[in-house]
Amino acid sequence: MGGAMLLFDRLFKRFLQHGELIVVDPAGQERRYGRPHPERAPVRIRLADNATARAIALNPALGAGEAFMDGRLQLLDGDILALLDLVTWNLRWERDNPVRFALWRQAQIAAWWDGINFARRSKRNVAHHYDLDDRLYDLFLDPHRQYSCAYWAPGITTLEAAQEAKLAHIAAKLDLKPGMRVLDIGCGWGGLARYLHKVSGAHVTGVTLSEEQLKYAKAEAARQGLTGVDYQLIDYRSVTGQFDRIVSVGMFEHVGLPHYRQFFDTVERLLTSDGVALIHTIARADGPGATDPWTAKYIFPGGYSPAVSQIIPAIEKAWLWITDIEVLRLHYGHTLKAWYDRCAEKQAEIEALYDGRFFRMWMFYLAAARCAFMNDGHMNVQIQLTKRRDTLPLSRDYMRDVERTLPGGAP
User: Fold this and answer.
1) How many other CB atoms are found less than 10 A from the CB of residue 292?
2) Domains of the chain by range and CATH?
3) 99 falls in which pLDDT band (50, 70, 90)?
4) Distance CA 411, CA 53 (A)
5) What percent of the chain has pLDDT over 70?
6) Which helix (H) or strand (E) holds 243?
7) In whole angstroms, what is the distance from residue 290 CA to residue 111 CA?
8) pTM to 2 decimals?
9) What is the pLDDT of residues 100-115, one digit of tens each?
10) How far apart are CA 21 and CA 19, in angstroms?
11) Where are the strands (E) in 86-221, listed by range?
């Protein structure tokens, strides 16, 4: 056995216990890892050469991701989601899992450095992912173009319904009134801003660093004849004025750990004395970690999903009240599966826009992200904030009462 396959063999024999992985090595020999499991279908792959085996053994996330993108790791039975689910399920975050170890973690110092997002670097990082061809996102997103965790309330079975339920859920927590001024930090393609304006009559300002998203948001608002929504290409740190409500969905992951205090200080500065803010973000139940190197390189440079324990201190230092926290555990996993299935169906269209390597990269990203929510410690949280302890009603009942009246709201 060569040195590369020896390393590969040692790694996979160590952690893969449940479910079966069959690997055809560069010499054409079949190697089996794990054992059959009733809930996990066998996955069969081929490694093109010893360099591929070595890269995966030395840096599993980066090595496997790049090998799959380049066609050096080929799926013979099962797809990339099945492979990553098999691997991450064996490493799942549970107290009674004896084989879990820090396979996908990177050094804390590397995560800190990658999270330093000065204004110029932030704009470059955003463009890396969000300035892709609009036609790509149209292939798998809902009509509101929500590129964040949906809300799968009981009875919801479609992505479209789940995303509109998410918008209603957020609107209810904001306790909106006509004439209010609302700031949407990281507004994306503007779907949330348009929804909030339509259901409340509030004036909504969306800010983004993506030039392509800005073009779409402005054009869509004009097409719908909405005068109570405006969009700006500006870093959130440069926003001025006062707002009755501030909302941020799927943007906090790009703030960067060194800037959390600055983010919440900015929210406190922009919020009126009786204002309400809502932050919707990916978070970690398993404590501080680091973005894996493949995701940092190819998908979200500068991105980091924080532990709740890393968010709260910055909120406390900004003198903001946490008036409500909701944890959405499996919701993003279901959302990502819907996106993954839609992209799989649109393979030809995606490859026509880019190429086969891009398609494989995109599918690896969606599959790995789903597994982070289904097997690892990832989750979503919605954190409601105020400046005053008496700003909102004393019970959460008002949220459900309002939500029932909104388009897409859960019954």
Assistant:
1) 21
2) 3-90 (3.30.1050), 109-403 (3.40.50.150)
3) low
4) 52
5) 91
6) strand 243-249
7) 5
8) 0.92
9) 544 444 334 444 444 5
10) 7
11) 181-185, 203-208
